[in-house]
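stuck on this one:
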Amino acid sequence: MEKPLSDLLVLDLSRALAGPICGRLLSDLGARVIKVEPPDGDLTRLLVPRVDGLSPYFVQYNAGKECISVDLYSEPGRELFLQLVQHADIVLENYRPGVMDRLGIDFDQLQAVNPKIVMASVSGWGHNNSRSGQGAFASAIHAEAGVTEMVARRREEEPRNDPMSHSDTCTGLHALGAVLAALHLRDRTGEGQKVEVSMAESTLMVNDLAAIEMSGQDPMVGFKGGQNWSPVLRMANGRYVSITTDITTNDGFRYLIEAMNRPELAQDPRFAVIEDRVMNREALTEILAEFVATFEDAAAVEAAIGPRGVIAAEVRSVPELAATEWAKEREAFVDIDTGRGEMITVPQSPWRFRGVEAGVKPRVGYRGQDNREVLNEILGLSPSQLDDLETDAIISSRPPRWSRDSS
């Protein structure tokens, strides 16, 4: 069946996370995505744990891509890449600014061989500014962009790093939007386009509290933005439930005392007005906790509280969500074969189109696995030419140990 981007060819030079997630989503939308790795490979291939020699972290954002390995620091490798660019629609990269130029494959050189090429560059701080040369991992951007400080302040705890790389993943999603917009512009103008996306600005954009932070105001009472006001409490079965309401607001307090049938709490001087409830939030939360502890599941908690605006959600792990009926109905997870029958389960992309397919292609390649097929099919290189490129280490591969041992 047709896929939305099935007529596009993408050369994905990116590594780690912010770039590869964009490449994975382009592949899920139907584009042919060729991951072009250096001889040392994508560093996320090295992350543990491993399943049959493959890192699940790597697989999650590189499934569906064909994998070739080219030494772009060599002149023949550069020429080989530029030959591929002639056939491509998109080049995706997340080197530090200036590296593509030093490699001899910056946008001007790409456009010289393919005037309609779209190049997307992902970096920590963007190009052509005082911080362009700085490296960037998600933890560093979270710290610099106010996320780490804000979370610690709102939780009233010491700053610490989040296990999830929000800055990387959000940047990859912004890069996807930028690439699709650049393609649309190219189709209108007939000219290629360069677009660059910074992790810092992407992180600011997805911080739904950034404008509040910039206002300099921090009122303690009223209907506030943010989710940290919603209590997470233990139920009778030992599991936890997250209740999306602020019990200090007038509505939230009313829902609470009605659900518990405790109208006398409205006369308690600790809870009489919203200012008092804010000062005594902990005591009020303890009263709610005693009530929640009488229920066996989140659905019963939600039904007891009543209003549709209050949602009670059970705190689950990812595997627990994957085991639910919803996940099966939605096909929200996909098994990726490591190459000899072992599976790595990854999240499916979230789109569902009417009458058109989209979603991850259930395959993953080792470094350089598709060298010969890609270079023969796209560039017409013969077996002897490919042998010469391998002999000269212009292209290389690293099959998994089980594959080498069986050959």
